[in-house]
Hints:
By secondary structure, the chain is mostly beta strands.
Amino acid sequence: MNKLKNFFFLFFFFVFLGHFKITALSEETVNPDNFLPLQGIFSVPKGADSSVSNNIVTVTKNLPSQIGSIFSNKDFRLDLTKKSNAEMYLKINGNADGLTFIMHALDWKVTEFSGSLGENLGVYADTFYTNGTMANCFYCSFVVEFDTYVNFRSTDYYSDRGSHIANAFPGEASTYKKVSTGARAVVHNNLQYTKLNTNTWTRFLISWEPIDDTGGIFSYKYGDLDWVSVKIPYSIFCNAKQVYWGFTGSTGEISEQAQVAFYSVPGLIYYDDTLKIFDTSNNLELSDKVKSDSELLIEYEGVYAGGKYDFNNPHIEFPLPGGIEYISDTFSINGENVVPTISGNSLQVELPNLNLASNKVKIKFKVKLKDLYSFDKFKITSIVNADNYTDSQGKEREFVVDSSPPKGVGNIQVVKKDDSNSLLESPKANILKSYEDDISSKEAISINFKDIEDIKEKAKKYGPTSFVLTLSDEVNNTADLTIPMFVVYENEKTASNSDFLLKAQDINIRKSFYPKTVADLKSYILNDSDLELYEVNNENLLESENPNLVDINIDGLPKPGDSITTGTYTITFNYKTVSLKINMNIIKDKVDYPPGSIKGNIDTKGEKISVSLKQFLPKQIFTDSYEDLSWTIDLSKYAIDLSDENVTVSSSEQMLEEVISKTYSNLNNSKQLLMKLSKEDLQQFSEENGDKEVTFNIEVPLVTTNKTLLDLYNSDNENFEIPVSLYNGKDLVSKTVASVTMQPPTGEGIDTVVKRVSSTKDLDASKLVTNLKSMLVFDTVEVLGFDEEKVFDDPGMTSVNVNIRSKATGVESKVKVTITIIEEPLAYVSVPENISLEKRDKMVQGIGKVSYNGVSDVDIQVDTMNVLPLESREGDKIDLQVYKSNQIPLKELEHLTVLSKKNTSYDFFLKAPKENFKKVDIYKGVIMINFELLPKVISSKE
């Protein structure tokens, strides 16, 4: 173990700021005189041995027991919200212990050193566990370590092959594992082994790219080693977005000098640039491949995002490799044409200064590829430098030249006639037997139909044809590939590959026609299967070949001369690399029609016997096998006499409904319907529809005059269950029951006027209904009474239900009766108690009044005598004439008036001439007034 003996505390702080001129140099020609001045950038914590001198940071001297610790000042922290990069050089002379590049968020670490030295490099927790804590670890940090001394049993337990580079998170518990020695070992991420103590300046590149609000990607590259990228969340830096950066290191008994110098400093200039390459023929951005004869558009864009200084006196260089020629007069900066300086095959231009007010530069120019072929490689590079910024590596895009289009071999495509979609919607890669490109991967090759409309048109025509697929690689090298295609009918079978196609169809043969010899059998198969053979020629088109070249395998068929059994057998056709199987169906001469079946339906309207006849109609293989087909349906004696007028036969098969014939038999106890289809109609139907089950629906009115219908009545479901039978000829094949629902009896209510506070108890239900009917002619409908007792409280209209019942079946129903409720109007009429007579001129007269003050809107007729006799105490008699309110005498038998809510009172007069009175006396008489409630006409019903 490299142990620390002692150390001294020193503190350095530089505050000088200035402008710097940087010259880009290759790693092989590193000159310390060109390193970036570092005044004011770094702070050395108290107690650390690091220093800055002659533009070089010395992290540790080549002395024992050194403490290395140097960090950027607060003003030079790295802004993690911006993209940045830096180029520095490390030089290690010695053997222990190493150094780290560190990023952290701890202010106090910048002013005073605190850490575990030796193998822990000032950042890792103590080597041995102390009460389970991570003592002296550097929290809120990320490091890249350059370890020149391997402590095999402790810190470097997992990196025991020698000096190495790795990254770690010193403040995270997951960074450490306890090993068998009892020590705390560091888990080294992205471990890289290399010789570090070369005592030469070796380039170390770093970059930071923010991803989102959660963190970013830190990348680094040392010398010729591969780039390493690490995703770092902001939580590692205790959620800080501004971090210090710098170096730590240490020596013990064994020592080394560790130094760092810069071509560009992290965070000094935030400059981000992109380099894009476009193919001008299609304006598509290229990734890593290019056509051999392409004209390319180079687009460079740089963005200054801030920093400690403006971007002063920048210039850019585009070194063009061999085979790439600059196209004159195409170079522009921010849209203005400029003439670049051309040195050899390199383009150089001065750029405008960039600052936050004017922070972008955009360059475009074109180049032409010349004398480059497939697999040639070249790079397009941009290198930008300024007085205070150097990017010796530059932006680089590497390409491989692709000069050849893809190649492929297609499989023969079989398409059903008028079904181009099956081809157009299938995976296009399945159309090809094989395909490849010399540069692009198979997955990157695009496959497209050249003319979809052409394919749709060709799919309408039977026979051999072809279509074209276009294959394109990543850089749009294209090739047209002719694909052979065969358009077949629905019933045809095919087998094909990229070279051959066999086409045939299944065979149907009568058992009695089966050939007697093998030769005849093969000949029959060859002809009846319509076997065809096609081969793909040099133009990728199908050419017909002699089908006699095809081997016919009949091992699966019955041997000629043996007993032949009906059934389905397999025939195999073989030709070179293709094989096709078809079926031979050995069938009877005729397919028997199975018996039909009949099913009764329910007529809920109580009118008809309804049944459905189902019959399977097989397609006969041979046209002479069709024969007439008939059915006899016995609809029982409860069907009305059958005729064309009252029998309805319908079917979803319009053709059969139109051609089926019907005849009738009307015996007393059996009404039979005979239906028939001719063999010609059956043949036409089956040829158009194939095997199919059809349904005929038959309806005939029910006889309701026969009392024996009650023998078929089912009181549980209130249906008459009519037996129906189906016969094929004289044979009974199916029975069923057609149900007819007994309809509730009907009647009409008689509108009725009742007095208020009366009830149904005051009414006779049988007198409130009329026109009672049953669906059964012989049935009687009886009145059962009101369905509920009801009191008529409120004047107006209401209704009651009267229950009625069929005596034959017991089925009940209700009749609704409209009730008008009125007050007792005569209780609200009034007459004068006496009428006083007065003498007026030549007449003696008096005035009487009748009135009505009820609430019901009724008509009350008022009648009285037209002459009122008077008699005095002495027996003198005088007649008074009654006058109506209009002073016209009331005639005999004439009504006085009609009282109602509109005419609530009426005045009448009594008159006699004065000379009729002999003397003054008291005259008495009684006038009789009769009130009669007139019937009210009801204009509407509830």
